[in-house]
From TrEMBL:
Keywords: DNA-binding, Nucleus, Transcription, Transcription regulation. This is TFIIE beta domain-containing protein. The keyword Transcription regulation applies. Residues 16-34 have a biased composition (Polar residues).
Length: 269
């Protein structure tokens, strides 16, 4: 009996072990069958843009300021720090050095919330431009007007074409100067300057005049040497034609103004 009891106990243990193995195999099989592969790591498709933004924010203060000033100049709008960040990726909230430098920049206006571009002369259109130029009868440098508003250079040319202003070059500084062409603006020329101008004796030959213009940094409108050379090759004479004599009054002329004897001093017989 004791032996049979042990045998039955062994069979029960063997059967239980078999059942556990079966359950484990089924579980593993089921798990492996239903398991999903782990999600693959996806890199940002915007990596290049993020690298560009990072390079801007690590750039020197001066470089970041230029980006902001360029945006303010192009848009001519008042922008907040957040709007500037969106437009050119310069984060002035995170970079105090850029923020402080922008507030002190003479080309920038800051009212506590908005940044905007500040030109030397606060004008916005052609009429205000003309009004400003008329305040400077001695002339105003065009370089001081260039950043007033986007179309200022076109308006300057328009005022010149309408003969409301003069645009002349300063040969010392090679800069254009705008002068008002207003009859109401008195322009006085010193007598010494008048005498100096009248005392200048011009060369008789046009080639010498062109040479003197070139020496003073001016481009002649003509090229006499080239024109003469071309004329010689074509066999064309460039000598001035003799002037025709003025028609003199003869006796055959009908004298309708006999009451003006000074008209007939050259009367021929």
């Amino acid at each position: 009996m004791a032996f049979r009891g042990k045998q039955d106990k062994f069979k029960r243990q063997e059967k239980g072990q078999s059942n556990l193995s079966s359950i484990g195999t089924t579980k593993v099989s089921s798990t492996s069958h239903n398991a999903k592969p782990p999600n693959s790591v996806k890199f940002s498709n915007d990596t290049e843009r993020l690298q560009h933004i990072n390079s801007i924010r690590k750039a020197p203060v001066g470089s970041q300021m230029k980006r902001v000033i360029d945006i303010l100049f192009e848009t001519r709008q008042a922008l907040t720090i957040e709007q500037i960040n969106e437009a050119c990726y310069v984060d002035m909230r995170a970079n105090k050095d850029v923020f402080d430098s922008m507030r002190k920049n003479p080309k920038v206006k800051f009212d506590g919330e908005y940044f905007s571009y500040k030109s030397k002369h606060d004008i916005r259109d052609r009429s205000e431009l003309l009004f400003l130029i008329r305040k400077f009868p001695e002339g105003i440098a065009v370089v001081d007007l260039k950043d007033a508003y986007p179309s200022v250079m076109e308006d300057l040319q328009g005022l010149k074409a309408a003969r409301e202003i003069w645009l002349l070059s300063n040969y010392d500084s090679q800069e254009d100067i705008a002068y008002p062409n207003d009859p109401k603006v008195p322009i006085k020329v010193d007598d010494d300057l008048k005498l100096l101008f009248r005392g200048i004796e011009l060369p008789h030959d046009m080639i010498d005049i062109e040479r003197d213009l070139q020496k003073n940094g001016m481009k002649p409108a003509t090229n006499t040497a080239k024109r003469r050379s071309a004329a010689q090759m074509e066999g064309i004479s460039l000598k001035p034609k003799p002037k025709k004599k003025k028609n003199e009054i003869s006796k055959r002329t009908k004298l309708t103004n006999a009451h003006l004897p000074e008209l007939f001093q050259n009367l021929k017989n």
